[in-house]
Every structure is written in structure tokens, then in C-alpha cells.
Amino acid sequence: MPCEMSKVPLPKEHKAAVCIWDALDVTTTEAILGAAGDRDEIQRQLIEIFDLADNKQNKRSAILLDLYYFTIQFALERGFSKEQTSSFFSIVKKTHEVCIETPFGNLEQCFNYFKELVLCHAVKRPPWSISLFSPEEVKAVTEYVVNTYFRHFKLYKYAFTPVVRLDLAINYVGLPDTPEPEEAADVAGEGEPVTVPETETEGAVQEELGETEQDDPSLGDAAWGHCNS
């Protein structure tokens, strides 16, 4: 069923804030970091935390599981602390949530929100931001998210948002409304001339010429001579 325009959320700006221990609390983060190197265990914990048990049947759950796992894997490869891992995971998760909140294009709003989230964890300015990532780590985080998530932004949008169909109707002020197709066909048929089949027309002409020749044979001979000339 097509979505009604009034129920489809439009793109909007979001204000970033510090999100340490937001998506992953201290205990959960420590448990995930403790399972470093064991992909199955990390995925099992992510499935349990974010209710992704249907990932074998639900493609959206499978996509989320991959997104979350590789986010954790990047944090492990970079040697992030538990605070950095939790914050980075929350940044990616929040960025994804902004992406899929509307079926309309919001790449600019989403990327601006991501950059502000990173800055909230890279500059010491409490309580608005904290110095959690170094400039080198900020660069690494930004490059990772740009090359993985934003490079496939439209694919995430397609997979997680409904398709919107626009039915457009235009009414001009001072002009009558356009009739429905059935009514238009009826109105058009009233003033149209009646088309006589070609065979009937030819027969009527032949009959009329025959009567004229009977009245005045010379007219027929003259017409025949004119045609021959």
C-alpha cells in the first residue's frame, strides 16, 4: 500500500551529543572485548543485545548484524579502549538510525550529524564534548565510516525504508476540473461526426452517378471522356 504523504517523515537536522555507554554499557562492552578473536561469540552477544535472532530469515537483521560486527572488529583492530569502543559503536548506530528515519534523501544531514558526533568525542569541552579520540583516530574513524557506510548509503536506505509513490493532481484556479476518462470519452462522442464505412460510401456514389447518366446520357459520356483525357 502506498504511504500517505502526511505519515512519511521528512529529512531533518539532528543535534549531536556525547554518547559514551549509550548503545553498549560498561559490562556489555567488556564482554565483547573479552571475546576478541572469536567471531561467533561476538555475533552471539550482538544478537542477544539487539534482538537479531531472526538474522537467518530477516535480511534487515542480517545487515545490522554485519554492520555491528565489523564496527566492533574495527575497534579491536585499532586497539580502542572500552570507552572508545562504546562511543564508536554508538556513533555508527546513531548515524544509521538517522539514515533510515526517512525514505527521502538525507545524505547531507546524516553526514553532518556523523561529523558532529565524532567531534563530540574529540574535543575536551565538557559537558558538550570530551577528548576521547586523538586526531589520528578521528581520521581513521572518519575514513572507515565513509568507505564502508556512506559508500553504500543508498543501499542501506533501500533496504531499511519503504518505497514512496507520489500521486500528483493539479487543479487550476478558474478552470473546471478535468473529467474522468470515462466521462471524457462520453462527452467527446456527442459532437463527433459519424464515420461512414468506405464500402457504403462507394456504393452511394456509384448509385448517384448511375441516376445522373439515366437522366442525361451525355453527362456520363463527358465525364468518362474527361477522365480518359
Structure description:
The protein starts with 25 loop residues before the first helix and ends with a helix. A two-stranded antiparallel sheet has the order 1-2. A hairpin with a 3-residue loop joins strand 1 and strand 2. Helix content is 59%, strand content 3%. With 229 residues, the chain is mostly helical. The chain has helices at 26-34, 39-50, 59-78, 82-99, 107-119, 135-148, 153-160, 181-190, 198-215, 217-228; strands at 122-125, 129-131. It has 10 helices and 2 strands.
Percent range for helical residues?
55-70%
Number of helices: 10
For the biggest β-sheet, the strand order reads 1-2
Order of helices and strands: HHHHHEEHHHHH
Report, as a whole number of angstroms, the end-to-end distance. Answer: 73 Å
Give the biggest beta sheet.
Answer: 2 strands, antiparallel
Low-pLDDT parts are 222-229
Overall geometry comes to: elongated
* Number of E-type strands: 2
Instruction: Tell me the β content.
Output: under 5%
